[in-house]
Amino acid sequence: MTTQERAAAAKQAMEELRAFLRERVTSSQAVREHHSRGEDTLPAAPPDLVCFPQSTEEVSSIVRIAAAHQLAIVPFGSGTSLEGHVQAIHGGICIDMMRMNRVLRIGAEDMDATVEAGVTRGQLEKALANTGLTLFIDPGADASLGGMTSTAASGTTAVRYGTMRENVLGLKVVLADGRVIHTGTRARKSSAGYDLTHLFVGAEGTLGVITEITLRLHAQPEAASVAIAGFPSIQAAIDTVIEVIQLGVNPARIEFLDEEMVRAINRFSAIGLAECPTILFEFHGVSVANVTESATMAEELCNAHGCSSFEQQSNLADRERLWKAHHDAYFAARALRPGSGVIISDACVPLSRLAECIVATRADLDRERFPAVILGHVGDGNFHVLSLPSEEELPEAGAFAHRLVQRALGMGGTCSGEHGVGLGKKKYLEAEHGEALSVMRAIKQALDPVNRMNPGKILDLTTGN
Amino acid sequence: MTTQERAAAAKQAMEELRAFLRERVTSSQAVREHHSRGEDTLPAAPPDLVCFPQSTEEVSSIVRIAAAHQLAIVPFGSGTSLEGHVQAIHGGICIDMMRMNRVLRIGAEDMDATVEAGVTRGQLEKALANTGLTLFIDPGADASLGGMTSTAASGTTAVRYGTMRENVLGLKVVLADGRVIHTGTRARKSSAGYDLTHLFVGAEGTLGVITEITLRLHAQPEAASVAIAGFPSIQAAIDTVIEVIQLGVNPARIEFLDEEMVRAINRFSAIGLAECPTILFEFHGVSVANVTESATMAEELCNAHGCSSFEQQSNLADRERLWKAHHDAYFAARALRPGSGVIISDACVPLSRLAECIVATRADLDRERFPAVILGHVGDGNFHVLSLPSEEELPEAGAFAHRLVQRALGMGGTCSGEHGVGLGKKKYLEAEHGEALSVMRAIKQALDPVNRMNPGKILDLTTGN
After folding, report:
1. Most B CBs within 10 Å: which of A110, A188, A235, A292, as the mutation test of the B interface?
2. Which whole number is the average pLDDT over B282-288?
3. Do A25 and A14 contact (CB within 8 A), yes or no?
4. Is this prediction's pTM over 0.95?
5. CB-based contacts of A90: which residues, under 8 Å, 6+ apart?
6. Chain A contacts of B179, Cβ < 8 Å?
7. What is the CA A426 to chain-centroid distance, rounded?
8. What is the pLDDT of residues A2-55, one digit of tens each?
């Protein structure tokens, strides 16, 4: 399709869309630019049109119209993608899901909820107030649940409560031809046929547009406490993490901060942490006694690994202050070099290789000119590097990020622990998946034969990836 | 393909297979009959040949030879299928996986293991002795892990530790054309591309032959105890289960037995349980204090629902005696009517509908002439009916099983909680999945275009299901 043909198709589609979306479809440049990228550093690419549907039926109609005019579809949530998931690299129609923001059902006895895809984590938490239930998935951003589903997001609490993969029970999805399907049931488990739910979780909109999500919820813990442990080395910190998990302590959070990250947080949040490799624990339990027991066991293991300080905080204000400072790590890192962009890497390796991987990564960073900090959800073997290169250091930062992925893959890990593939990680899928990539292509071809659903994300359908 | 053509194809394939399998391929009638069914009550259907490969490469060669001669492939594990997964309804080559029984790797720090598909649960547990690790999935039978993966099996401990879906981290799979892929990585989570692991879990061999499985393991609990609670009604028992889960007590097992089941177990195992609706709890924790606290909380909730007896047993011998009696429920049921076959149903509904579903099912059974008992993994909303019809009552038992599925589907549940679809549940997939069934068909067609992999199981590729 030439640029002119695409413009003509978009114009025709616009007329048909306006018939039922009215002012909820636009080709205004400002709106298109707002929908041309996420929070990544990849080049922006605006769609031709942006729609704001309010129902699955409207999404289905949009997709049918896109099909009739051979236009691409790009779903858009809160715009917090870090890997170029929402760039409309082939133009087409962006479906902004954020007006599909109703919590449709909360099942107290079933401990589940059904939401529209544009509901954010924060909106769901508000709706769950006073139910004693929560969705324990915290990727940092107040992302839409559709986006979190599409990238298989996780975050700090996955070590105990799982990622989106473990917490999505069912979906409503609009397919490439506009048909609407539901996947899963409201039962908590099933062996009845192919697991389509898990196929769409993490598919980044390339197989269909997710419009509704049924989520598993968890009981709010009766008691909780946090602990801050400082270590003489990265190795000692990670060895402790492994033993805490092996012993079945089952913390709700185990977050690692390297010395540079701690220093940045201290400067930004004035929280006065000891400046050394640090583990933040959170323990959940049915009682204070229960939580204290977990913390005591963790403390013993920390001490056995030469922990220099183990500080428990069980009152809510202290806990919130600590996690607020942790949440602000991104801003703390930015403050290390005001005006610089931040490149966020996302590696995940087997726990047995994690210490080695972080140590090698820190040594690698120490040879670079740009500042960088390391933090991670180490109970899952997942960590991030926040790099702050100047404009002219960008190529070096890119080369570092590439080496990090190679290192993770070399250790049996993955190129993306929780941020997804988008455009940014496509080039690594061949190395990670080998021949299995051809199976992914076959599935994409079966469900989206003309490559209209978020085309060019995760994989290409032409030769090579 | 006519019967004669198939016989000729099998003969040719036999020659080619013998070249590398030698005596590990056979067309002997005894072996073919042994591989003609599982433990289900569906008609037997023997394959033309049975192979006993010892490596993924051999499986790949077998599949290539089957492809060249247009013969079907049916993978076969421990033969404990309850839904007709292994009947060779189109003949062809049965691949008995039980000589692929090596535990390839145990990762103590990563808490995972990689096994060949023919390793049974029991063999893995033996290999894990003294590691402090275990696979907490207990479907009753000493099934092969390949079979358990292929049916997304679960059992008594899924309420705390998850089903095979949550515990399979990666797979090695032989595709329909003989290519070998691996899915997943050794990292504990990933957002890198489509989730092929979950696609093959539960696919019952219809998309490929699983030859290796990487499994998540769990720490053996430091302390454990069981409790037996008797209730005045099914409703009271299930209401208690819901509250125990809502409170975050997180038991390792919550098994329901109806009054008839308790009576049968008492008679068979002389265990002296009070004959009323009963819940068996097992609690796991990091210490005796921890486990006692869980049991106390459960006891309070039981009492609030009119529990007539709550008996804790924390010594190992008592616990083992209880679970042995529970495991023998099948034999206890059979003893109700010696010589009769047992039809095992497998329904799973949202917890909020579970009491209603079991009460209605019991009332339904009470109108039948054949004896039947109910037991279930009620923390997941999953329960089984063991029916013992005489030869002439078989049609009534079938009609009952059909009503049970309809009831479960009507309550937002699934036709199969953990036994799979095979031949037995195919007819319900349209009602359960609707349009999504066409997506399952599209995936089957993409991965197995000539319908050679366990053909006729889960779905048919012709019109209708």
Report:
1. A188
2. 94
3. yes
4. yes
5. A72, A455, A456
6. 435, 438
7. 16
8. 999 999 999 999 999 999 999 999 999 999 999 999 999 899 999 999 999 999
Angstrom distance (rounded) from CA A359 to CA B19:
51
Find, among B49, B144, B54, B58, the residue nearest to B99 by Cα.
Answer: B54
Query: In order of start, what are the domains of chain A with their CATH numbers?
Result: 3-96 (3.30.43.10), 103-219 (3.30.465.10), 223-327 (3.30.70.2190), 337-410 (3.30.70.2740)
The 3-state DSSP class for residue A204 equals coil
Q: What angle do CA B181, B182, B186 make, to 5 degrees?
A: 170
Tokens coding B228: 């037996």
Contacts of A196 in chain B (CB under 8 A): 436, 439-440
Q: Which residues of A touch B202 (CB under 8 A)?
A: 191, 193-195
Mutual angle of helices A394-410 and A351-366, in 10-degree steps: 160
Q: Which of B134, B135, B143, B32 is nearest to B88 (CA)?
A: B32
DSSP state of B202: T
List pLDDT tens digits, range B145-202. Answer: 999 999 999 999 999 999 999 999 999 999 999 999 999 999 999 999 999 999 999 9
Q: Quote the Cα angle for B344-B350-B353, to 5°.
A: 90
Of B284, B419, B443, Cβ closest to residue A446:
B443
Distance between A297 CA and the closest CA of chain B, angstroms: 9
Q: What is A38-104 written as a DSSP string?
A: -SSSSPP---SEEE---SHHHHHHHHHHHHHTT--EEEESSS--SS-SS--TT--EEEE-TT---EE
